[in-house]
Amino acid sequence: MDAGITIPLHGAILRPWSRDDINELARVANDPAIAATLRDGFPSPYTTADARRFIELATGPEPGLFLAIEIDGKVAGGIGIH
User: Fold this and answer.
1) How far apart are CA 43 and CA 82, in angstroms?
2) Quick one: which of 10, 1, 4 has its CA closest to 59?
3) What is the pLDDT of residue 75?
4) Is the pLDDT of residue 1 over 70?
5) Is 29 helix (H, G, I), strand (E, B) or coil?
6) Alpha carbon of 3 to those of 32, 35, 42, 43: distances in Å?
7) pLDDT beyond 90 at 30
8) Predicted confidence band at 4 (pLDDT cuts at 50, 70, 90)?
9) In a domain, 2, yes or no
10) How far, in Å, CA of 29 to CA of 77, rounded?
11) Of 75, 74, 55, nearest to 66 (Cα)?
12) Which of 12, 22, 29, 48 to pair with 57, CA 20 to 30 A apart?
């Protein structure tokens, strides 16, 4: 669900995901250290197809709130409530 929420933080911004984030999300999330700390369903390697599926979920009508964490104009991760 894209609630249009943008939350400024010290050194970061929480904002809705965008299809423009697909390549950057794939780059950032394709790190084995990230996959090792997340649930078993987190893909590794993390591809642009994985990023596309996630962003479609995050911007779709499903219940929940998924926000991108942006630092210095680039996606650094995400946070969600579902």
Assistant:
1) 19
2) 1
3) 97
4) no
5) helix
6) 31, 27, 24, 26
7) yes
8) confident
9) no
10) 8
11) 55
12) 12
pTM: 0.86
Tell me the CATH number at 70: 3.40.630.30
Structure tokens at 54: 């996630």
The CA distance from 48 to 24, in Å, is 9
| Model pLDDT for residues 41-51, shown as the tens digit of each residue | 889 999 999 99
Question: Residue 17: what pLDDT?
Answer: 96
Domain count, the chain: 1
Instruction: Tell me if 1 is assigned to some domain.
Output: no
**Distances in whole angstroms, Cα of residue 22 to Cα of each of 9, 10, 11, 57, 58:** 23, 25, 22, 12, 12
Closest listed residue to residue 53, CA positions, set 81, 19, 3: 19
Assigned token pair, 15: 């904002």
Strand ranges, E, within 1-82? 7-9, 12-16, 65-71, 74-81
